[in-house]
Design goal:
The complex is a heterodimer of chains A (206) and B (602). With 206 residues, chain A is mainly alpha-helical. Chain A is built from four helices and two strands, in the order ααααββ. In chain A, strands 1-2 form a two-stranded antiparallel ribbon. The termini of chain A are far apart. Chain B folds into two domains: 102 residues, no CATH class; 336 residues, DD-peptidase/beta-lactamase superfamily (Beta-lactamase, 3-Layer(aba) Sandwich), CATH 3.40.710. In chain B, the strands form seven sheets. In chain B, strands 2, 3, 6, 7, 10, 18 and 19 form a seven-stranded mixed β-sheet that branches. The longest helix of chain B has 29 residues. The chains are: A mainly alpha (206), B alpha+beta (602).
């Protein structure tokens, strides 16, 4: 008769009789007892706290960084707005000056100034041929007394703009010297820069 | 202890249910806001925080051949006020304390003073502005918007802003400025208040010049109205208009206008036109009309004068067309400059017409040259009848008469060749030989002379070189293909005959330009009055080209009814001055040899 090896553990009821009397003084029986896994000791709790602190801390850092960037961007927005306002103001100034300039560049203004200075148009050209110095054509003096051209070809952009001869001396860049060439203007002495001691400065090239 | 162990699931279940209930409330609220009412809430938020702005596209510039700007886009401002707010009460303002400039006083400024300040800046009387407010409120008691001034310039706009009146709001309004005033004003035309083109190239080339406005919106902060970066949304892109490149030279245009206007004043004429065209290419260098509109101020002259009579006013050209008839006759081989006729003061051809000359003379032995030099209608009729009417008519069509030119100007006239030649009555058959009985515009006459000057090849009349898009590509470029009208030999011989007119005609001293060979023909024509008869005044014209040995420029002058000098002598000085200026400006080399001698009589 072959004896099969035991396939199952022996029953508990046989190993551990459930009687109060037996429980109190139970010595360690030979069969293994299941019991709950021992709890981790307190010393091992610290690593978990560190992880929590790191996680929460980095969230805080990210939020802080976002806040700082947002503040910086808002600051930039205000600066940008200030520049845009300035740009619009400068564009308007440029528009005003360009409009003035256009009127002054028109041929009507040039003709008005020329006539105010006493010039007349001359439509009889005379050519000087440079190769041999020959003069082609008859030099004739321009016939004066042509009518003022301003009312003939009007330009309402220069209505009310006086010709150069009537503008005040302070407004022209040369201080009115064009109109009064007789007296030598004793203006402030012109300061010339000192002559360079060793010739003109040149860049050192290799 | 048993109770604890018996009901833990129930407590847990209860807590779970409560938790789910709370979360459910929040979820419902969340779904309500984010899904159900999302769009209307977004709308409302956008309304409060976002600002829509129009991005204006700039209308294209009009440039002359050298790049001088003839028409420009500028920003103007409309000043609007709110009548309702204006009447709501005085304005509280901080003004510097008169007694202590470093401190400010809070002052109540009454409406009358505000209107006076505003009126001083925009140029309206305060009573006017008050009337505007009252009228708006009478029409609509809740009226919040009325224009106080339109299209004021930048300086006035800044002053209005400085006044700081809260119920006055300026709006941007793109406008147009013409820096050179009346120079080429007849060609450029002008625009109205709303940017609509009314005349000239502004109207006919609007497709090239017009711009499209775009729209963009951005979010702004609530209090400071500062734009939030990155929040711009472009709803539609703005597109600038293309620049229009003309063939006109602005300086020459000014000079020609000045010369023509001076002569109109001196002779008391009604109007005048002068055309300067390049002979080899058909490009128009100057087209002057007197009077000319200043596009900055179109209302300053009559409505009739605001266009360009060079293109729109047809007239009977008169004797200047004799050159075309002679050219046709020579081209057909039926005559040459020394062909001979005997012409009397009066010619009665067999079909019953009656042709007279403008000056009395007995029977004269004219060559074709002499007929042209003396401008004899009878002689011309004798040469012209060597061709059939159909042949002459076809040649006139080839020269460009009877059809609008290639420019495509608004309201351009095509002239009238009196219908089909088979329908010409007997007088018209002969009248068309010397430029009566048919009408042309000044441009058509210049173009016909250009064909003669260019060796018989007519080039298309060109005013616009092309349209330059903002990215630099040229579109709508003008055609440069010519068409042969008469043979080169016919053109040369006609040109030589015209040189004799210039040298031997009765105006030889008035239009002398030393150093150059010039070919020219005068004409004195009657102008139809539109009711079947003729007006009393004449239209005197001169057309010619120079230098005749290698023509470069064609000049055509027409003066209407110069009462103080009712003959071609009125237009000769204009021709002389304009042609001299053109030759000088373009540094044309003076002619070498003299004109060939052709006999006028035999």
């Amino acid at each position: 008769m072959s004896a099969l090896p035991a396939q199952t553990r022996p029953l508990r009821s046989r190993a551990e009789p459930d009687r109060p009397g037996r429980r109190a003084g139970t010595a360690a029986p030979a069969e293994p007892r299941l019991r709950p896994a021992p709890e981790r000791a307190l010393g091992r709790a610290r690593p978990r706290l560190v992880y929590a602190i790191i996680a929460v801390g980095s969230i805080g850092v990210i939020a802080l960084a976002q806040l700082l960037l947002s503040i910086a961007m808002t600051q930039g927005a205000y600066e940008l707005d200030g520049y845009r306002v300035r740009e619009a103001q400068l564009a308007r100034d440029e528009a005003k000056l360009a409009e003035d300039l256009d009127g002054l560049e028109s041929p009507q203004y040039l003709a008005m100034n020329a006539e105010a200075l006493g010039m007349v148009p001359n439509s009889a050209p005379v050519y000087l041929r440079l190769s041999d110095g020959a003069v082609l054509g008859q030099p004739t003096a321009a016939a004066g007394g042509t009518a003022a051209s301003a009312p003939l070809v009007p330009n309402s952009l220069i209505d009310g703009v006086p010709p150069v001869t009537e503008q005040e001396a302070a407004q022209t860049p040369s201080g009115g010297q064009g109109a009064a060439r007789g007296d030598q203007p004793a203006a402030a002495p012109v300061v010339t820069p000192p002559a360079p001691a060793e010739g003109l400065p040149t860049p050192a090239t290799h | 202890m048993n109770r604890v162990s018996r009901h833990p699931m129930r407590r847990i279940l209860m807590a779970g249910i409560l938790l789910v209930a709370f979360v459910g409330v929040f979820v419902v609220r969340l779904v309500d806001i984010q899904v159900v009412r999302a769009s209307e809430l977004n709308e409302a938020a956008q309304q409060v925080r976002s600002e829509t702005r129009t991005v204006y596209g700039a209308r294209g510039e009009i440039l002359d051949a050298n790049g001088t700007v003839l028409a420009d886009s500028v920003m103007r401002y409309d000043i609007a006020l709110s009548p309702k707010q204006a009447m709501s009460g005085p304005l509280i303002r901080e003004e510097p304390d008169p007694s202590d400039p470093s401190k400010t006083l809070v002052v109540e400024v009454p409406r009358e003073q505000l209107l006076a300040e505003l009126g001083a800046v925009i140029g309206r009387a305060p009573a006017d502005l008050q009337k505007l407010i009252d009228d708006s409120l009478a029409a609509d008691p809740d009226s919040d918007f009325a224009y106080a001034a339109k299209l004021v310039d930048t300086a006035a706009y800044e002053q209005v802003k400085e006044l700081g009146i809260p119920w006055v709001v300026p709006y941007e309004h793109p406008g147009r400025r013409y820096p050179n005033g009346a120079v080429a004003g007849n060609l450029i035309g002008f625009t109205g208040d709303d940017g609509d083109a009314f005349a000239g190239l502004e109207l006919s080339e609007d497709a090239c010049l017009a711009a499209e406005d775009g729209e963009m919106s951005y979010l702004h902060s609530l209090k400071d109205w500062v734009a939030i970066p990155g929040s711009e949304i472009v709803h539609s892109e703005a597109r600038d208009g293309g620049d229009l490149q003309l063939t006109i030279d602005a300086d020459l245009q000014w000079d020609v206008q000045r010369i023509a206007a001076a002569q109109v004043q001196a002779t008391g004429a009604q109007w005048a036109t002068v055309t300067v065209m390049e002979a080899k290419t058909g490009r128009l260098l100057a087209v002057a009309d007197v009077p000319t509109v200043d596009p900055n101020d179109p209302v300053a002259i009559d409505a009739d004068d605001r266009g360009s009579r060079s293109f729109t006013a047809p007239f009977e050209p008169g004797s200047t067309l004799k050159a075309l008839t002679a050219a046709s006759v020579i081209d057909a081989g039926k005559a040459d400059p020394s062909s001979q006729v005997v012409a009397d003061y009066r010619y009665l051809p067999p079909n019953g017409a009656d042709v007279n000359d403008s000056f009395f003379h007995g029977p004269t032995r004219y060559t074709l040259t002499g007929v042209i030099v003396d401008s004899s209608n009878t002689g011309m009729s004798m040469f012209g009848e060597r061709l059939t009417d159909r042949e002459r008519y076809e040649d006139l069509l080839d020269f460009g008469l009877g059809n609008v030119t290639e420019v495509g100007f608004p309201s351009e006239a095509s002239g009238d060749l009196h219908g089909d030649p088979d329908d010409w009555d007997n007088q018209t058959k002969y009248a068309t030989m010397f430029g009566q009985g048919l009408t042309t515009t000044a441009l058509q006459v210049a173009s016909a002379y250009q064909a003669i000057a260019n060796g018989g090849v007519r080039m298309p009349v060109t005013l616009v070189d092309g349209c330059r898009a903002p990215d630099g590509t040229m579109t709508e470029e003008a055609s440069t293909e010519g068409r042969r009208v008469i043979s080169e030999q016919a053109a040369d011989q006609t040109s030589q005959m015209l040189e004799r007119v210039y040298l031997d005609g009765w105006l030889a001293e008035k239009w002398e330009i030393p150093g150059y060979r010039v070919a020219a023909k005068t004409g004195t024509a009657q102008v139809p009055d539109g009711q079947g008869g003729y007006q009393s005044g004449y239209l005197v014209s001169v057309s010619g080209f120079a230098p005749a040995d290698d023509p470069e420029f064609v000049v055509s002058v027409s003066i209407m009814d110069p009462v103080k000098m009712n003959s071609s002598a009125a237009s000769a000085p204009v021709f002389q001055q304009v042609m001299s200026q053109v030759l000088k400006k373009y540094r044309t080399v003076p002619s070498g040899a003299a004109a060939p001698e052709l006999p006028a009589t035999w």
